[in-house]
Automatic annotation (TrEMBL), chain B:
It comes from Aquicoccus porphyridii. Residues 26-151 form the Tripartite ATP-independent periplasmic transporters DctQ component domain. This is TRAP transporter small permease protein. InterPro entries: DctQ, TRAP_DctQ. The keyword Transmembrane helix applies. One of its GO terms (biological process) is C4-dicarboxylate transport.
TrEMBL record, chain C:
This is TRAP transporter large permease protein. One of its GO terms (cellular component) is plasma membrane. Part of the tripartite ATP-independent periplasmic (TRAP) transport system. The complex comprises the extracytoplasmic solute receptor protein and the two transmembrane proteins.
């Protein structure tokens, strides 16, 4: 029996730990009749160190957020673009498929085995100041997670504050930032209902956020062939990516309910006019990012069209 | 010998000056960032990454001198016993030597990791500074620390009267 | 679990053999992690921690708070603090010792270190108490004990390190330290009263200052009030009003405090160029040594983590059927015993990786546990045979024996135990202020 060490840098109760990584363990156990299992170890190293840890065998599996390593990941920004229609499950499945068809060519995860890709649900702006219109975002001091959210933030006129996710509560609470860009589900994980009582919601989101789950290639190669095959067919890739997407969606639903229930929390949905205004900004960001991805050497436009088509298929 | 001594002194004086300037700069940067944000709603967006670089520079600039002076935090509970047994110098020398030798491994690994991050094109978020520069700096200073500790260990063991050579205090 | 316990034993042995604590923890963590995974994995983990810890944004509070304390010191603020406490309390029996306690509390509000607080106040308060014929046991004990407040009353380097190690909010920890710190002052005042009640000759009354004198003395401490108000007010978010929105994170609070202290010292013309150089270089050295131990502690804690000690301890606790409070009692007892011989930071670094997951798993509040750990750490500073604050006193004063100081400290130590019991019985004393944030 193989007990994989799964390294995680997120708070213990976060859906990434409770639903996604534990879900991965369940899936692996089921696919291999218990021959492969895993246990989560928290806090071994900060987020940008995770890929190195797996590459060198200090841990067997980890999850990374691509935006934390600027420069290293470019093609993965594709899934973070604003304007896609559909939930995180549809987007995560489409993400895996487009990776297989286009992005894998760039081999941005070289050195490790990529076993799942996902994006969280639509990213919204959570603030402790009232935000009712797109114009209210101008000058708002906002914590952005990196990746496409930074480009969108620049278009919106947000003033970027850089802090790691676990410090978000403190940063908002102390007033060092007025807001934070995150998907709805993180309202529970980072207690935003207490320190960011307003949600300004853009249907489809301002951006999304790209994650990958990585496994040590060496560890994978050391497994018996039948176990490898079972994992490849039943767990890794699309099935696991789908599970992660569904977990993000479930967390969004839970957090929305909690926010609507909390009397002092409000969710403001962008007006039609603001949606149209943002669509223009989104188009600009899209053009810029697709340009970057094309420069990296793949057919960015075709990849973008594929994500939209696959998401539409999944959403029906 | 005077030349060697001068060289040894310079090799700690230069990093200490760097560390001092960086620390002062960090203080001014944090102050300016807060003032700009509080009064003009215009924080310095690169403040976070500059702060991160600054601490690494401060810490690793000071590390060789700290180790040369033997000022790492140590528990001296049994010192009276070791003194009575005439073992203190032997113990100090061997421990310092061992510490220096053992630092060699992570120091060379830090170089590998820096080169790896260079091959992936890692850079900072706002200023697009390649991260491997700092990796190399940390590696070089860790090597320097290792070297200093090996030297200090040898001097304690074999030439305790020369200890002043690597001290600057 | 066995591996982790053996590892802990080896660290203890190495540390006692004079290996720097950073290296002892790092070495054992490296070798242990190697045995659990691979050499390549272990050395990579260690190297990544060296790279990442030295770039941890949250840790930038460490040099900045140290810097603030040292600049403050150069500004001559300790003398003024003592003058004002003395003006109000000096005429009472034991009054000078009481003034010392209060001045230590005031100095603690701008310094993050207990040793610095004790060292600074001993230079100011000791000659004064000698002049009025105070017993050495009382005068040195009041400084040694008062000095321990340095790490509880914010800012506090120990609380920062606890916050970083456990990912607990440093802002909340700081705010949580205020009431227990104030209680500490109060209880130490009681300890002085007890001492002079039993032996009136130990602390004769000093001279009385009239109200004009008191007001004049009060004017001297504006700088302390300003700095403390700036740092804590900014952290707490009470300076957030139009047109300037002064609210900050701990790092920013430290930066503002350091800059403020620098400007105050400059304005008072008490800062020469060589002073500045000395302060900067002392800060970088202290910072580097703290980072070294932090990196070592993190390496060790990764080994403990991957060897499964936290889970094993949890299982053991549930199998033995221990209630959470029994576990807490055992942990605190271990702290008090370790504290007799261990230096505060080493003790924190060695134990927190092991106890923290257990304690939070049992449902204790991480902020509350942090404060309780700091209070037991304070106790360790004044208990024999190794009490660092006592040694600081001995170093500065010279002609007293450590035995005399330890004897004088006994009532203060007893009051510490009472305070600890109170914080255990009424967690609200710790958690009320942070809950308002
Ligand atoms: Na303090
Ligand atoms: Na002690």
């Amino acid at each position: 029996q193989e007990n994989l060490v799964i390294s995680s840098w997120l708070p213990p109760a976060h859906p990434i730990n409770v639903d996604m990584l534990e879900g991965l363990v369940d899936m692996m156990e089921e696919a291999t009749d218990g021959q492969v299992t895993g246990e989560i170890k928290m806090g071994i190293a900060p987020p940008p160190a995770q890929m190195d840890l797996v590459m060198d065998g200090a841990a067997d599996v980890t999850i990374i957020f691509h935006g934390y390593q600027p420069g290293r990941f470019i093609a993965t920004k594709l899934i973070e673009l604003p304007g896609y229609e559909g939930n995180a499950e549809a987007a995560s499945v489409a993400y895996w498929r487009v990776h297989e068809a286009h992005l894998a060519e760039l081999d941005e995860h070289r050195g490790v085995k990529l076993i799942g890709l996902s994006t969280h649900g639509p990213g919204q702006i959570h603030s402790n100041k009232a935000v009712n219109t797109l114009a209210d975002l101008n000058g708002l001091k906002t914590r952005l997670g990196g990746g496409v959210s930074a480009d969108v933030g620049a278009e919106l006129g947000l003033v970027g504050i850089q802090v790691p996710a676990p410090k978000v509560y403190e940063t908002l609470d102390s007033g060092a930032a007025d807001g934070v860009a995150m998907n709805m589900g993180e309202r529970i994980s980072f207690k935003l209902n207490e320190v960011a009582k307003n949600v300004y919601e853009m249907p489809g989101g301002f951006y999304r956020g790209s994650f990958a789950v990585l496994m040590s290639q060496q560890k994978f190669d050391s497994l018996p062939a039948d176990v490898q095959q079972a994992l490849e067919e039943e767990v890794f890739g699309e099935p696991f990516s789908r599970l992660m997407g569904a977990a993000w969606d479930a967390s969004d639903v839970r957090a929305r309910a909690a926010t609507e229930e909390a009397e002092d929390n409000v969710i403001v949905t962008a007006s039609e006019a603001d949606q149209a205004a943002f669509a223009e900004m989104a188009a600009k960001v899209r053009e810029k990012i697709l340009g970057e991805i094309a420069d990296a050497g793949i057919d960015a436009q075709a990849a973008y069209e594929m994500v939209k088509a696959e998401m539409a298929k999944e959403s029906n | 010998m005077p030349l060697l001594k001068r060289l040894a002194q310079l090799s700690v004086a230069v990093p200490m000056t760097v560390a001092a300037f960086t620390l002062f700069g960090l203080m001014v940067l944090t102050f300016t960032d807060v003032v700009m944000r509080s009064t003009f709603n215009a924080p310095i967006e690169a403040a976070t990454e500059l702060t991160r670089i600054a601490i690494a520079v401060i810490v690793f600039s000071a590390m060789p001198l700290l180790s040369a002076r033997g000022q790492h935090i140590t528990v001296d509970l049994l010192d009276p016993l070791f003194v009575r047994l005439h073992m203190k110098r032997l113990l100090d020398g061997m421990v310092t030597l061992l510490c220096g030798v053992m630092l060699w491994f992570p120091a060379s690994r830090v170089i590998d990791l820096a080169e790896r991050s260079r091959s992936y094109g890692d850079q900072t978020e706002y200023l697009n500074i390649p991260t491997f520069y700092l990796g190399w700096f940390i590696a070089i200073m860790t090597f320097a620390t290792a070297l200093v500790m090996v030297l200090r260990g040898l001097i304690i063991l074999f030439a305790p009267h020369k200890l002043g050579l690597i001290r600057n205090d | 679990m066995t591996e982790a316990l053996i590892g802990f034993g080896v660290v203890l042995a190495l540390v006692l053999l004079r290996m720097p604590i950073a290296f002892a923890m790092g070495l054992v963590g490296l070798v242990g992690f190697w045995m659990e995974t691979s050499w390549r994995g272990a050395i990579s983990m260690v190297s990544r921690l060296i790279i990442d810890t030295s770039q941890d944004y949250g840790l930038s509070v460490v040099p900045l708070f140290i810097l603030m304390g040292l600049f403050v010191n150069k500004g001559g603020i300790s003398r003024e603090l003592y003058a004002v406490s003395n003006a109000f309390l000096g005429h009472m029996r034991g009054g000078l010792a009481m003034a010392t306690i209060v001045a230590c509390g005031g100095f603690a509000a701008i310094s993050g270190s207990s040793l610095a607080t004790a060292a600074t106040m001993s230079k100011v308060a000791m000659p004064e108490m000698r002049k009025f014929g105070y017993a050495d046991s009382l005068s040195t004990a009041s400084i040694a004990a008062g000095g321990t407040l340095g790490i509880l009353i914010p800012p506090s380097v120990i609380l920062v390190i606890y916050g970083i190690l456990t990912e607990t909010s440093i802002g909340q920890l700081f705010i949580a330290g205020i009431i227990p710190g104030a209680l500490g002052i109060l209880f130490y005042l009681v300890a002085v009263r007890i001492t002079v009640a039993r032996n009136p000759a130990a602390g004769p009354a000093g001279s009385r200052t009239d109200w004009t004198g008191r007001m004049r003395a009060l004017r001297g401490v504006w700088a302390v009030l300003l700095l403390f108000g700036l740092v804590i007010g900014g952290l707490y978010g009470i300076l957030d009003f139009w047109p300037i929105h002064l609210t900050f994170s701990p790092t920013e609070a430290a930066g503002m405090g350091a800059m403020g202290a620098f400007l105050i010292a400059l304005a008072r013309r008490s800062l020469s160029f060589s002073d500045i150089r000395e302060v900067l270089s002392e800060t970088t050295m202290t910072t580097a040594s703290l980072f070294a131990v932090l990196i070592g502690a993190w390496i060790f804690s990764n080994f403990v983590n991957i060897a499964g000690l936290p889970e094993a301890l949890r299982t053991m606790v549930s199998e033995l059927g221990l209630s959470p409070w029994m576990v807490m009692a055992v942990i605190l007892l271990i702290y008090i015993v370790l504290g007799t011989v261990f230096e505060s930071l080493s003790m924190l670094l060695l134990t927190v990786p092991i106890f923290f997951p257990l304690v939070t798993g049992l449902g204790f509040d991480p902020v509350w546990f942090g404060i309780v750990v700091v209070v037991v750490t304070e106790i360790s500073l004044i208990t024999p045979p190794v009490g660092l604050n006592v040694f600081v006193l001995k170093g500065v004063v010279g002609d007293v024996t450590t035995g005399t100081i330890f004897r004088g400290v006994t009532p203060f130590w007893a009051m510490d135990i009472v305070r600890l019991a109170l914080l255990l019985a009424v967690p609200g004393l710790v958690l009320y202020l942070p809950s308002l944030m």
